[in-house]
Specification:
The structure holds 2 protein chains of 2 kinds. By secondary structure, chain A is an all-alpha fold. Chain A contains 12 helices and no strands. In chain A, α2 crosses α12. Chain B has a domain of 188 residues: Rossmann fold (3-Layer(aba) Sandwich). Classes of the chains: A mainly alpha, B alpha/beta. Bound molecules: adenosine-5'-triphosphate (ATP) and magnesium ion. The site of adenosine-5'-triphosphate has 11 residues of chain B, from α2.
């Protein structure tokens, strides 16, 4: 290669037109996504700005007094629901993944059947989980429209995602760690429990947080499950009535009064901040623990 | 081009001082392989190996890549059991008991027969926890401080790490990690230590340390080492098994044991021309 060609290539010249068009298309796609998000964020922030204050957190919703209404019951409701979702989904999902990855016979027919089903479940629309939750938890188990019904339903919703990301995290633990443990006379269970699982925790944490941040933004299944949209008290137990941030937002945006529109925008900002914070934590964990082998 | 004479001369020089005291025949074998063949599903990776492993001796497995050295090594502690489809024919007798017999628990075998891998595979835990792991999973209760110190000392690592026991094992150099793996291995008090190219990823200085350590440990343990390094085999081992991979009548490659004997003799006067070609560097 001549000196001239080399400098041309370093300067990015001489790239075929076709490649450059393709690059621009890729960039454009990215720009559309980022631009939309930026517009949305700016819009709700500006709109909600007048009501983005402490009252949002200290006051309860009110139909008569939109000037002083807050979203406290929705914030606490979301925290209750998501905490119990995590409490149910995390151990179940991790144990299921551990079984599939470390103990089940690989490539057996039943294994493949389960695998395809988990992939499919991850893609099932959330409203379908709402119907399931309504039939099973609310009606058949008579849990009614309670925090626990919502948590169990959302747990089912995030379970496939937790299983899939946990399996990926387990698979990323190198074979030679397992071999080292087994060669010392550890059983497969000891190896899974004391080596593979701890080594996979960062990946599991990241996957779980991302899955839960999806659940915290869900409104559709909870609407079906009868999250009560107007609640002026915080949940006091798993059988308590509740509302959540997305439900509260949905309810306010239905109201035509301008004050409620502003209130909804402010609450959206709160929800978005919670989501961003969760994603930030996930990224932080991932970066902090990256590549030890 | 290699000068065969020069290389054999070099190996002569390397031959271990221990060699002189080794009896011509293995009198007190820890392991006796009888017609052992190891398969991966239908593929016979190594065929009909018959071989004794002498107590407190260092036995080296040498031979070209793919001749089944690692495969055979893993059959001494049933690590092949973990590979789906792998199975074995013949008998691997440990003090007269077939370790593939119906009443043998592979976990028990692995406690007696430890293993050091090619790439140092320390656990993502502290140095202390790495050494204490084996005893812990084997049910040892109570304070392990003394045991940890003893094993690290035996592995010639104690002086370098005694102030950093709580630090991650990943902070150690490759050579230190490999010595930690050896310490971890002897913490379970095995009788035999298998080493699969333990120095392949180390620099010459770290390699020399591990070799010294092996010779040192041989007074207490029986060691089997796979190596691609002729000098290493000559320097540390008492007996050497030379394997090669050859096509059979159906044009399928199988690993075979070509020659087994005292390292001294195998290197200075090999009986098989294939051994001679290999150790003098004329082999691919
Ligand atoms: N897990 C496995 N599944 C199927 N075949 C395997 C497996 N491991 C090894 N083999 C095959 O068995 C034969 C022997 O492999 P092995 O790793 O024992 O050779 P080796 O002598 O240790 O080679 P090297 O010196 O390169 O480490 C090779 O043909 C290899 O392809
Ligand atoms: Mg090998």
């Amino acid at each position: 290669m001549s000196h001239l060609q080399l400098t041309n290539q370093l300067a990015g010249k001489g790239t075929p037109l076709r490649d450059r068009i393709f690059m621009w298309l890729l960039f454009l796609s990215l720009a559309i996504g980022v631009f939309t998000l930026a517009v949305l964020l700016t819009y709700v922030t500006i709109k909600g700005w007048p009501r983005l204050d402490i009252r949002l957190f200290t006051n309860m919703p009110s139909v008569r007094d939109p000037e002083n209404a807050g979203a406290q019951s929705a914030i606490t409701g979301s925290i209750w629901v998501i905490s119990f979702t995590a409490l149910v989904a995390l151990p179940t999902g991790v144990m299921a993944a551990l079984y599939l990855e470390e103990f089940a016979r690989p490539n057996s027919r039943s294994q493949r059947f389960i695998e395809v089903n988990i992939q499919n479940l991850a893609a099932v629309p959330s409203i379908v989980y709402g119907i399931l939750g309504l039939a099973v938890f609310a009606r058949a188990l008579a849990l009614g429209q309670s925090v626990i019904t919502a948590a169990l339903t959302l747990a089912l919703l995030v379970l496939p995602v937790i299983i899939i990301s946990t399996r990926e995290a387990l698979r990323a633990v190198p074979r030679n760690i397992r071999d080292g443990s087994l060669a010392l006379g550890a059983t497969e269970w000891q190896t899974a429990y004391r080596q593979t699982l701890p080594a996979a925790i960062p990946g599991i944490a990241t996957g779980t947080i991302l899955a839960l941040s999806r659940a915290i933004g869900e409104a559709a299944p909870l609407l079906l499950l009868g999250a009560v949209s107007f609640i002026t008290f915080n949940p006091d137990g798993v059988l308590s009535d509740y509302t959540t941030l997305p439900i509260q937002i949905f309810n306010w945006t239905k109201d035509s009064r301008e004050e409620f529109q502003v209130l909804a925008a402010a609450t959206i900002v709160v929800l978005l901040l919670i989501l961003l914070a969760m994603n930030f934590v996930a990224i932080w964990i991932r970066n902090k623990t990256q590549k030890r082998w | 081009m290699n000068q065969p004479n020069e290389i054999t001369m070099h190996l002569d020089h390397a031959l271990s001082a221990r060699g002189a005291s080794i009896p011509p025949e293995t009198s007190d074998p820890v392991f006796t392989l009888d017609n052992v063949s190891v398969y991966y599903s239908d593929y016979e990776a190594i065929r009909n190996v018959t071989l004794p492993i002498g107590r407190n001796e260092i036995t080296a497995f040498i031979g070209p890549s793919g001749c089944g050295k690692s495969t055979l090594l893993r059959s001494f502690n049933r690590m092949n059991d973990l590979i789906p489809g792998a199975h074995l024919k013949g008998t691997v007798a440990y003090h007269g008991t077939d370790i593939y017999g119906p009443n043998v628990d592979p976990i028990e075998v692995r406690r007696k027969v430890g293993m050091v891998f090619q790439k140092p595979n320390v656990f993502p835990k502290s140095i202390y926890e790495n050494v204490a792991y084996g005893p812990k999973v084997n049910g040892t209760k109570g304070n392990l401080d003394d045991l940890v110190e003893e094993c690290l000392t035996r592995a010639a690592l104690w002086n370098e790490v005694k102030d950093d026991l709580k630090k991650s094992a990943y902070a150690l150099s490759g050579g230190q990690q490999q010595r930690l793996v050896i310490a971890r291995c002897i913490a379970v008090k095995p009788e035999v230590i298998l080493m699969d190219e333990p120095c392949a990823s180390l620099d010459p200085l770290a390699t020399a340390k591990i070799e010294d350590l092996m010779v040192e440990l041989a007074s207490e343990y029986t060691i089997i080492i796979v190596t691609h390094n002729m000098q290493q085999a000559a320097r540390v081992s008492d007996r050497t098994a030379f394997f090669t991979a050859e096509l059979d009548e159906n044009e399928i490659r199988h690993g075979r044991l070509v020659e087994f004997g005292r390292t001294r003799e195998l290197f200075s006067s090999p009986t098989d021309p294939r051994t001679e070609d290999y150790i003098s560097g004329r082999f691919g």
